[in-house]
Write a structure and sequence with these properties.
Elements (H helix, E strand, L loop, with lengths): L3 H15 L12 H10 L5 H14 L3 H4 L4 H8 L5 H18 L8 H4 L7 H12 L9 H9 L8 H8 L8 H14 L33 H13 L1
Helix pairs in contact: 1-11, 2-3, 2-8, 5-6, 9-11
Length: about 240
């Protein structure tokens, strides 16, 4: 079993081979549209968000327009994304701040982005990378947190600490792409409830922390880890 640093580079190599051109599934045409879509994507699927945003951007094309929106009207449009009242409230407040404080342009630093209502570090990382190509950190969602833990790259559960653990393990230029690739890998292979270990690119280097009866065994062979995974799934 390679050490953590070696493992991270192998993970990067294999994710790159599986997903050579990673990108967000959220449809957007500008950093502002990505910001709005990312806020709506909290506790919601990208597919659902992509059905909502065309009407939202038709009615309120940019932050200046959304800043003047009635919250009740925005709630109707974003209702299906869940937590619609809070999302509508935050989006209008963020639009007002972008318009009044940043001249209608989405700010390009982490320090400024997290001053916008509804934007925490994860969302800010998505906007910085997807909107401007800036790697100031790594967005840690449920997929990234789960996969990093299973691979033994972190023992943390707090997203901020997970990010701190991961950043030194990957080249800075790859931080944004690692997020996208892990999200896709989490959806396609490393599922939360039933990871498909039989066709996992990482099986021979994965200690499978928290999967099956192997709590976190870096000494187990690939066949042993695969057997443990099958035993877990069959229960």
């Amino acid at each position: 079993m390679p050490n953590k640093e070696q493992r991270a580079l192998l993970v990067l190599e294999r994710l790159h081979a599986r997903y050579p051109e990673p990108e967000t599934h959220l449809i957007h045409q500008s950093p502002w549209e990505l910001l709005v879509a990312t806020v709506l994507a909290a506790q919601c699927t990208d597919e659902r968000v992509n059905k909502v945003t065309p009407e939202l951007f038709r009615r309120w094309p940019g932050p200046a327009e959304l800043a003047l929106a009635a919250q009740e009207e925005l709630e109707v449009v974003v209702h299906s994304t869940g937590f619609f009242r809070n999302k509508a409230k935050n989006l209008i407040a963020a639009a007002k701040r972008v318009t009044d404080v940043f001249g209608g342009e989405v700010p390009q630093t982490m320090a400024e982005l997290v001053t916008l209502p509804g934007l925490a570090r994860k969302t800010a990382n998505v906007v910085l990378w997807g909107g401007f190509g800036i790697n100031e950190g790594m967005a840690v969602d449920t997929h990234v947190k789960r996969i990093a833990f299973r691979l033994g790259l972190t023992e943390a559960s707090d997203p901020v600490q997970v990010e701190r653990d991961l950043l030194p393990l990957f080249p800075e230029a790859e931080w944004g792409n690692v997020n996208h690739r892990m999200v896709w890998f989490g959806r396609h292979v490393c599922d939360a409830r039933k990871p498909d270990c039989d066709r996992c690119d990482m099986l021979d280097i994965c200690p499978q922390c928290g999967v099956g009866s192997v709590v976190c065994d870096e000494s187990a062979s690939a066949p042993e880890r695969k057997a443990a995974s099958r035993k877990k799934v069959s229960k």
